[in-house]
Amino acid sequence: MCRMTTARPDDATLTRDGLVPAGDGRVLLIACGALAREILDLKTLGGWDHLDLACLPAILHNHPDRIPAAVEALVQEHRDAYARICVVYADCGTGGLLQAACARLGVEMVEGPHCYAFFDGLEAFAARDEITSFYLTDFLVRQFDAFVWKPLGLDRHPELRDMYFAHYETLVYLAQTDDPALTEKARSEAARLGLAFERRLTGYGDLATTLEGWAKTPQTV
User: Fold this and answer.
1) Per-residue pLDDT for the chain (221 aa), expressed as one digit of tens each?
2) Is 211:124 a contact under the CB 8 Å cutoff?
3) According to DSSP H, which parts of 17-96 are helical?
4) 92 vs 109, 166, 205, CA distance in Å?
5) Which distant-in-sequence residues (6+ apart) come within 8 Å of 200 by Cβ?
6) pTM here?
7) What 3-state class would DSSP assign to 141?
8) Residue 7: predicted pLDDT
9) Which helix or strand (DSSP H or E) is residue 220 part of?
10) Which of 31, 116, 123, 196 counts the most CB atoms within 10 A of its CB?
11) Among the residues of 106-195, which ranges form H helices?
12) CB under 8 Å to 73, separation ≥6 — which residues?
């Protein structure tokens, strides 16, 4: 994993390598690289200097079976250096295995099925029950080719698009920031997939309240 500097980590590095902690906090957040910018922004806004951040490569989202073991390895590596460790992943396709690992390790994790739900708000997301929607966040809009187009082989076989996305109707962009350029990129990706487009300005959603709770109640693991 790459080492954090004073500059924000770039998306390609977060996708491929993740982020190692700076080692200057009392509470360690172990997170998906796709959430790094949002977590760092919230840390700055809250003045939470006691929070440190380590990120696993965001591309693990394409292999969710590997996430629990990767999280456990980071917990074991860093637990002696921190008073508390919290995991900034939802279930993320692990079928409950990540929750079981966190319970066994004695660390907390974000509630919910995936980041789309906690950005949108868990209750609101569940109430929508949008089984025909395909979701993107700010990070996934920026990294659409790396996470969607190329892994599905659509860069080589664009004719497969209709097979992969036949049961979807709408691309829903859950926007963390009000960025016109990202909105237009998300709109163009919807057209690329042959889907209707919807944008929701969610901000940080339940991620903000979860991190605030952890930041204000540090304790030993």
Assistant:
1) 544 444 678 999 999 999 999 888 899 999 999 999 999 999 999 999 999 999 999 999 999 999 999 999 999 999 999 999 999 999 999 999 999 999 999 999 999 999 999 999 999 999 988 899 999 999 999 999 999 999 999 999 999 999 999 999 999 999 999 999 999 999 999 999 999 999 999 999 999 999 999 998 755 44
2) no
3) 36-46, 67-78
4) 12, 23, 17
5) 120, 172, 173, 174, 175
6) 0.90
7) helix
8) 61
9) none
10) 31
11) 115-120, 122-128, 138-142, 144, 161-164, 180-193
12) none
Q: Which two tokens stand for residue 221?
A: 């693991």
Residues, the chain = 221
Cβ-defined contacts of 37-42 (< 8 Å, 24+): 37/8, 37/9, 37/138, 37/139, 38/138, 38/176, 38/204, 38/207, 39/88, 39/207, 39/211, 40/8, 41/204, 42/204, 42/207, 42/208, 42/211, 42/212
Letter for the amino acid at 65? Answer: D
DSSP run (H or E) holding 85: strand 84-88
